[in-house]
Amino acid sequence: MADEFERCAQWVREADGLLITAGAGMGVDSGLPDFRGGQGFWGAYPALGRARIAFEQIANPAAFARHPRLAWGFYGHRLNLYRRTLPHPGFAILQQIAAALPHGAFVFTTNVDGHFAQSGFAGERIAEGHGSIHHLQCMDACHPGIWPADDFTPEVDAQACLLVSEFPRCPRCHGIARPNILMFGDWGWLSVRSDAQEARLHAWLRGVAHLLVIEIGAGTRIPTARRMGERSQGRLIRINPDAAQVPEGKGIGIAAGGLSALRAIAACLG
Question: Which residues pair with 137 in a beta bridge?
Fold first, then answer.
């Protein structure tokens, strides 16, 4: 793959702005669980496996209505996990690449873990297409507000996947709050925060003449991040160990993990 990495490095040199698009595979090198397939998900959450509850069933507003302690057990565990997990060195490599470009970088991610901000990317240069676990909204949508989850520290019985501490509460109606995340079958997600982020992204794109898209770990099952890169008017480097194919004439596909591929590109850049 040496020729592909050299070609990627040349595209970096010819770009004036970098759009980073990232899916769940971006977090694997940080040690975050991979939810692909029922067995991978149930391996991470055995209580849900014993109950035969699939990812699509728990990552669903109906789960909060039916069994909020179970739903918050799942999301509370994830919130704690994301807070204590350090982003892998690939985030720093992307920052180094961006620092050499006139327009820097903008991030579009479907991950809700907040790791781009945690690793040092500026908040005004991040668009979280599916929301963020670090923000909350009213479960009953009594008002359109979105607020940080900073004051919420969930205590979770991991064996049972149940929240054992107090629920986060809506500041207006004092009902249960939910994560400001786009879930499956979700008509109640408040998208205003993500919409504003995407508006900033599109304004930034209008000022970039020679765009390079580096996509890391974006799967085909929920192809939001893949489509963002494919629709952008720029060259595309797609890094994915399982689905690296790119549309004909659009870019370079690298069948590798995110961190190893980014290290190889950085080595070619010198």
Answer: 178
